[in-house]
């Protein structure tokens, strides 16, 4: 296909012919194996930041792979407990279709506090510097989330003939989750420090609350403002970015003040 | 990192077999799983006819397609699925698609045919036989329009017509934003149906007064024909004929129950199948009755055979004969009675006799009476059409039948006048027999036509267990005696007709992006990923450079202490 296009480009003259050629090449139908290329695109977009973060944060020097896997196993366990809890205590709500149950969803989001407990558990079991603990916990946690909640939809959906922008959005979302979990682990670590200055208590608590209820807030925004999928992604990125910048700022201040 | 990973996996392998099992078997299963289909739009499509008649193939030979959609305006049509709407359909465009060896043709028909202007309908009706006349390997499908299909069509139209005209940059932008559609059918390749039995039904009313009574045979074929078998409803041709036959059966069975009106003619009613495929049902029935049976009503004394074919519309009636009837025969009597009744009671109807010799060199016979004529039985066909080649006989646009009750009354009166010999007895031309209690039931006539047009009755779709056949059998059984079924199957070695399957398919339209889009996306992702580590390092540098400054550190701490102590 490429060779034919190349030959033709030498033979024809004039811009119209060239543009026609580009048009024809551009509009060539998608053979079956190209959809695997699309899956590869989405997978690279989702997974490579994790890989790069792992490399750049210096975790590889500490032989942290097995600890990250343990953190991932803790994630699975915590999710299982959360699901059981939700299934037992929160029966399905039979209400109208369009009305959004604010209180119910708020209660459900509160269960996400278990995530914080899980992160704390992971971090307390790992001995080492603060940064090391945070990074190990965050990497393991977010990689487990990537594998569990995004790999299978990507594999099943992005490989199909039908094209949908949601797979690219899902991959972006996994990048945002990585940043979010790093910030969350940092905030949890700061919260449990005995030598945290009093002035830091309030902002750390506020950030902690924001981390837990971020998903709830996102759903609220989407529902109230009726955001499109790309706009919602942008809002989520901005929110996570601001949370993580604040927590990074506080963390560096804390570490360097000691 | 990969060394550590391999270490972990080694441990996993050595430690416990069930763990590896649990991890790897689902992974393998997921890898080899077939892809679920989730299409942008799924709709039913009806294929063009495919059949062989007397060894000659007709129609489209292929059923499967998996190609990208285009409209006729596009430059390159080869190996693409060409979508056309009925309003834009013309024979030149169709030929253009076939000449450029398109992958398939899909014609979108409006859901409600009656909203179409008459000239488009007429033009399409005339093109149907031309489309079928030559066999083609391109699969041709018909689909009924709905909103999603229309939006798919408009999107394909905009992308097809903009292909040749814009600059290279515009084309690139266009491919990134627009959707292409891949059309895929879900069925298999079409193959010949073996052992297809065409069913016909017969019933009789016996006359009174002696042994060797003359027999009048009334025939109508119940199957319909069109360019797509699943869309052939055949209201006029020949739903009108069948409905009229049932009404005549009802009227005469009522007359025959009373001794005073029980006439001296045997009435034989025959509802034949395979009529549109050169009258296969009639052909075999005649062979069975004349060649293979010792005694049959058809052998002895046949007054005439009247075939009813397409009598639902129009203001004319034609009696098609292969030999002009001689004076003194029952045929001649019927001819005269029809003229009398038409001129006296229905002056708006123009009645005439059309004489056409049987031409055995033709591929197919013209009218059903020619089958009887070949076996030397006096027969004619009554129809509002002037010629057997008229396109109304074989069109999918045939959905209305408005003049049926008037024509039924006309024919019933004429038949009664022949059977009871009324003209010789001096009855006036405007005497109406079927009035009051013997009134013709118009509602029943129209409801039978409605029922017949509620399902497609192409000969390939009506098998011997079909509800059409069993309902007709039941209705005939209410009025007639000795209702019997008659089957005809194609000969094994030299089949007169061969039908093919896969006439109705589900087509999926998948949104696809062109190949260049994936390359563009890969570039963008590579650029984004390449920026990630640089972002991290710059963030690191700026933060450490900011916060290593003592003064700013102190300022931050004191500011925080003050503000939150106030609170």
From TrEMBL, chain A:
Keywords: Cell membrane, Endoplasmic reticulum, Membrane, Transmembrane, Transmembrane helix. Its main location: membrane. It holds the Pfam family DUF2053. The chain crosses the membrane at residues 35-52, 64-90, 134-156, 176-192, 204-227, 233-255. GO terms for cellular component: endoplasmic reticulum membrane; plasma membrane. It is found in: Cell membrane; Endoplasmic reticulum membrane. It comes from the Eukaryota. It is a multi-pass membrane protein. PANTHER family: BOS COMPLEX SUBUNIT TMEM147 (PTHR12869:SF0), SMALL SEVEN TRANSMEMBRANE DOMAIN-CONTAINING PROTEIN (PTHR12869). Belongs to the TMEM147 family. This is BOS complex subunit TMEM147. The lineage of its organism: Eukaryota, Metazoa, Chordata, Craniata, Vertebrata. The gene is LOC112227217.
Automatic annotation (TrEMBL), chain B:
One of its GO terms (biological process) is regulation of signal transduction. It is found in: Endoplasmic reticulum membrane. The keyword Ribonucleoprotein does not apply. It comes from the Eukaryota. Transmembrane segments: none annotated. Keywords: Endoplasmic reticulum, Glycoprotein, Membrane, Signal, Transmembrane, Transmembrane helix. Residues 214-371 form the Peptidase M28 domain. The keyword Glycoprotein applies. It is a single-pass membrane protein. GO terms for cellular component: endoplasmic reticulum membrane. Its main location: endoplasmic reticulum. InterPro entries: Nicalin, Peptidase_M28. Belongs to the nicastrin family. May antagonize Nodal signaling and subsequent organization of axial structures during mesodermal patterning. This is Nicalin. The gene is NCLN.
């Amino acid at each position: 296909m490429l060779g034919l296009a190349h030959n033709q480009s030498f033979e024809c003259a004039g811009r119209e012919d060239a543009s026609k050629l580009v048009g024809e090449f551009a509009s060539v139908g998608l053979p079956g194996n190209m959809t695997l290329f699309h899956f590869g695109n989405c997978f690279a977009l989702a997974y490579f930041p994790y890989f790069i973060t792992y490399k750049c944060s210096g975790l590889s020097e500490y032989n942290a792979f097995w600890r990250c896997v343990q953190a991932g196993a803790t994630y699975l366990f915590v999710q299982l407990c959360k699901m059981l809890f939700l299934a037992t205590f929160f029966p399905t709500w039979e209400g109208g279709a369009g009305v959004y149950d604010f209180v119910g969803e708020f209660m459900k989001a509160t269960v996400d506090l278990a995530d914080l407990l899980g992160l704390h558990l992971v971090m307390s079991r790992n001995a080492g510097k603060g940064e090391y603990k945070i990074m190990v916990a965050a990497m393991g946690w977010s990689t487990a989330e990537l594998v569990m909640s995004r790999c299978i939809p990507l594999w099943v959906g992005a490989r199909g003939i039908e094209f949908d922008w949601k797979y690219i959005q899902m991959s972006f979302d996994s990048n945002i989750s990585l940043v979010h979990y790093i910030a969350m682990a940092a905030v949890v670590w700061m919260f449990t420090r005995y030598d945290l200055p009093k002035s830091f208590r309030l902002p750390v608590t506020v950030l902690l609350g924001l981390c837990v209820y971020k998903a709830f807030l996102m759903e609220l925004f989407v529902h109230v403002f009726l955001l499109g999928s790309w706009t919602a992604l942008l809002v989520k990125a901005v929110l996570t970015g601001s949370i993580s910048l604040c927590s990074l700022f506080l963390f560096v201040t804390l570490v360097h003040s000691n | 990192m990969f060394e550590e990973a391999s270490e972990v996996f080694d441990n996993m392998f050595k430690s416990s077999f069930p763990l590896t099992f649990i991890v790897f078997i689902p992974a393998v299963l997921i890898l080899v799983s077939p892809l679920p289909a989730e299409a942008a739009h799924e709709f039913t499509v009806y294929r063009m006819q495919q059949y062989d008649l007397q060894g000659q193939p007709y129609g489209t030979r292929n059923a499967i397609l998996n190609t990208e959609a285009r409209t006729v305006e596009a430059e390159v049509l080869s190996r693409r699925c060409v979508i056309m709407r009925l309003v834009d359909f013309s024979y030149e465009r169709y030929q253009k698609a076939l000449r450029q060896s398109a992958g398939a043709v899909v014609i979108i028909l409006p859901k409600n045919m009656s909203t179409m202007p008459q000239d488009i309908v007429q033009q399409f009706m005339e093109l149907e036989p031309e489309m079928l006349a030559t066999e083609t390997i391109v699969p041709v499908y018909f689909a009924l329009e709905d909103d999603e299909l229309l939006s798919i069509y408009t999107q394909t139209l905009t992308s097809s017509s903009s292909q040749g005209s814009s600059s290279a940059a515009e084309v690139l932008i266009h491919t990134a934003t627009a959707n292409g559609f891949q059309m895929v059918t879900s069925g298999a390749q079409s193959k010949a149906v073996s052992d297809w039995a065409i069913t016909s039904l017969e019933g009789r009313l016996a006359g009174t007064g002696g042994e060797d009574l003359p027999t009048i045979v009334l025939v109508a074929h119940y199957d319909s024909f069109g360019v797509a078998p699943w869309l052939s409803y055949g209201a006029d041709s020949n739903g009108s004929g069948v409905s009229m036959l049932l009404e005549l059966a009802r009227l005469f069975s009522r007359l025959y129950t009373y001794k005073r009106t029980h006439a001296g003619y045997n009435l034989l009613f025959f509802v034949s199948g395979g009529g549109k495929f050169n009258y296969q049902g009639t052909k075999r029935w005649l062979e069975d009755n004349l060649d293979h049976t010792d005694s049959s009503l058809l052998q002895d004394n046949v007054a005439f055979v009247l075939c009813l074919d397409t009598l639902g519309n129009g203001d004319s009636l034609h009696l098609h004969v292969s030999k002009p009837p001689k004076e003194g025969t029952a045929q001649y009597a019927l001819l005269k009675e029809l003229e009398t009744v038409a001129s006296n009671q229905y002056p708006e109807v123009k009645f005439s006799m059309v004489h056409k010799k049987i031409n055995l060199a033709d591929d197919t016979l013209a009218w059903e009476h020619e089958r009887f004529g070949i076996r030397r039985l006096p027969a004619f066909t009554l129809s509002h059409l002037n010629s057997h080649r008229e396109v109304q006989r074989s069109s999918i646009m045939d959905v209305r039948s408005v003049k049926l009750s008037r024509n039924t009354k006309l024919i019933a009166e004429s038949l009664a006048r022949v059977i009871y010999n009324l003209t010789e007895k001096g009855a006036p031309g405007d005497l109406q027999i079927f009035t009051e209690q013997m009134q013709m039931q118009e509602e029943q006539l129209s409801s039978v036509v409605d029922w017949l047009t509620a399902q497609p009755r192409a000969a390939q779709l009506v098998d011997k267990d079909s509800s059409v056949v069993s309902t007709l059998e039941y209705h005939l059984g209410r009025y007639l005696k000795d209702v019997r079924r008659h089957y005809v199957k194609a000969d094994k070695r030299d089949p007169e007709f061969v039908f093919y399957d896969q006439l109705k398919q589900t087509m999926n339209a998948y949104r696809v992006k062109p190949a260049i889009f994936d390359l563009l996306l890969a570039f963008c992702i590579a650029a984004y990923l390449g920026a990630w580590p640089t972002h991290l390092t710059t963030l690191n540098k700026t933060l450490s450079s900011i916060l290593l400054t003592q003064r700013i550190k102190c300022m931050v701490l004191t500011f925080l202490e003050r503000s939150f102590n106030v609170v």
